[in-house]
Design brief:
This protein is of the alpha/beta class. The chain has helices at about 5-15, 25-35, 45-55, 75-85, 100-105, 120-135, 155-160, 190-200, 215-225, 235, 240-245, 260-270, 285-305; strands at about 15-20, 40-45, 60-65, 90-95, 110-115, 185, 205-210, 230, 250-255, 275. The strands form 2 sheets. Strands 2-1-3-4-5 form a 5-stranded parallel β-sheet, with helices on both faces. Strands 7-6-8-9-10 form a 5-stranded parallel β-sheet.
Length: about 300
């Protein structure tokens, strides 16, 4: 075994996981599984207990059940992502819907896991998340603690605990003012899809540049960069290199999926997409999704400003 492999295993074995689930049976089962995997698991049953843990300890991974009493799992996931955006969040649900999956994507959830849990898939997901976090070059001895100064967490939670809402204008079109001036890079091979999305985006005040392939987009990215990437599943699966070429880190990505539905939204979440656009590209639906995504990204910018 190489020294690199040994260090990676040691880092993973020392990784801390916060598990939040109000079902004692499932909580105990997952906790035992995590400990058998060599992970240090802290298991709590409510969002309030989770917040206390987050004030005092850093974690490489957080696993949250969506339906928690009081502050919901989705709201908790939103707060955790804002406090520590580099920490992966696995959201577990037994009542899956496309709408809640889209909300989870906009809030920065890393994985959307359906009940009943497949043990092998769950183990692989956890291993991948922890390995990625533990191997980050900027990983400090204190792990990814909250970026907020001590004592400020309660007020931040009070401000951020509500789910994101998109204000509607009189004509029932969602407000996407947050897109005004945003540099949007659209990569789509299908001419009809690309032109339709360019037409819709033209009403947002964003700065749109579109290409049919990553190869065509590369020079533009290196020269001017972009804020928001909208691209097909295939492009996002290999977009890491493209994103790294940008002069500054982009705000996020949105996936173009051919059929829509829960399964494709979950696939998009696994590609770290913050939203999903699917045909037919109705203006109101596209605007709603764009508004949802940009609201989540704007909240992250606000959180970083509060921390500085």
């Amino acid at each position: 075994m190489s020294k690199m492999d040994r260090r990676e295993i040691e880092a993973q074995e020392s990784a801390r996981v916060l598990l939040v689930d109000d079902d004692p049976g499932l909580r105990n089962m997952i906790g035992i599984l995590l400990e058998k995997m060599g992970l240090q698991c802290t298991a709590v049953e409510s969002s309030e207990e989770a917040m206390l843990c987050l004030e005092n300890q850093g974690y490489e991974l957080v696993i949250v059940d969506k339906n928690l009493p009081g502050l919901s799992g989705l709201q908790l996931a939103r707060i955790i992502h804002l406090l520590s955006p580099k920490t992966p969040i696995l959201l577990i649900t037994g009542y899956a819907s496309e709408e809640t999956a889209r909300e989870a994507a906009a809030l920065g959830v890393s994985e959307y896991i359906l009940k009943p849990i497949d043990i092998d898939d769950f183990r692989r997901t956890v291993n991948t998340a922890v390995r990625h976090t533990s191997s980050r070059p900027d990983r400090s001895a204190k792990r990814f603690r909250s970026t907020f100064p001590p004592g400020t967490l309660p007020s931040v939670v009070a401000r951020l605990s509500m789910p994101p809402k998109i204000e509607m204008q009189d004509d029932d079109t969602p407000s996407v003012e947050l897109l005004r001036g945003v540099a949007v890079l659209l990569i789509e091979r299908d001419d009809n899809v690309r032109l339709r999305l360019v037409e819709i985006l033209g009403h947002t005040g964003s700065q749109i540049v579109s290409f049919t392939s990553v190869h065509q987009a590369r020079a533009h990215v290196e020269r001017q960069g972009f804020d928001l990437l909208i691209a097909s599943h295939g492009v996002l699966a290999s977009a890491r290199n493209l994103i790294e070429r940008a002069p500054k880190p982009p705000l996020g990505t949105i996936a173009i999926m051919r059929h829509g539905g829960l399964d494709e939204v979950i696939d998009a979440i696994r590609l770290q997409a913050r939203g999903v656009l699917s045909p037919p590209f109705v203006t109101t639906n596209v605007m709603l999704e764009l508004g949802r995504v940009m609201k989540g990204l704007a909240d992250e910018r606000t959180a970083r400003a509060c921390a500085s």
